[in-house]
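Hi all, long-time lurker, first post. I run a small reading group and we've been trying to get comfortable going from sequence to structure in the token notation. Rather than ask abstract questions, I figured I'd post a concrete chain and ask someone more experienced to write out its structure so we can walk through it together at our next meeting. Sequence below, copied exactly:
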Amino acid sequence: MMHFEGIYTPVTTPFREDYSIDYDAYVASVDYLAEAGVHGIIVGGTTGEYYVESHEERVRLLELALERCKGHLPVIFGTGSINPDESVALAEAAAKLNADALLVASPPYSLPTERELALHALAVDRAANLPVMLYNYPSRMGVMMGEEFLDRVGRSNNFCAIKESSGDINRLHLLARDYPHIQLSCGMDDQALEYFAWGARSWVCAGSNFLASEHLALYNACVVEGNFDKGRRIMSAMMPLMRVLEQGGKFIQSVKYGVTLSGRFAGVTRKPLRGLNKDEKRELEQVIRTLKTTIAHIENEQPSRFVKSLKANISSNKAITEKGE
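-- Answer (accepted) --
Happy to help. Here is the structure in token form:
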């Protein structure tokens, strides 16, 4: 079983003005993320605009990511498609290229039943025989990966994680309590703190395309240090960004502009999406500037306070022990 721990970045796809892919810029982004310390790369996620890319383009992006990561950073390949046969073909390509895992979503628009959806997911699984992170995103796909679905796909041990993007906090409780064998991965950025509190150890976050260190800071505080006081402060600083990304209506455009602000080429979005206007750009710039300053301050001053508190607790426990002796 593959263990998903840390920050997983769904990489953006840089398109030139003529909508062709700038593969050099894409490779530069993969290299940047690896150097920034993220724990995994996702190729073909929603943020990568897979739905407007050809089979050949998607496979080429996977090839390049695998070449750059060279086994030291896991690469997960998204197989989402409106056509189930295309998802199977992408899974076969992933197996041939030795991808580390698959990201398996529901086929949008057709609205399959949970049984039909499970049969589809199992067909994709058979085509690759790789670890699978499920991708539950009902607001885009139209259907929920419910309990019947989860029970049915449980016939294969490859289904070992789920990126939960429903936004329904009750789903988090259901998965944590009733499906502990499926690793939880936060797929709703504004609920990351809650996911970590309920035991999730990974976060698939588009914002890490341009704010990797800040997303890592929240993960480290909550999961590595177990310091949820610090985590709440970092999450509070990140909430304005979460509102822009999750509630602003221009998710991919905002992420791409964030990448541009970080000094890398993000390019345009393929139609039907259009870029941000001047006011939206100005708002995002201010949000990012404030976020970076606030989290840098927390990172610089919080460790000493936390360590002092930890030392005080150790000293107190030692005194109690010695008194007891």
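A couple of things your group might point at:
The radius of gyration is 21 Å.
The mean pLDDT is 94.
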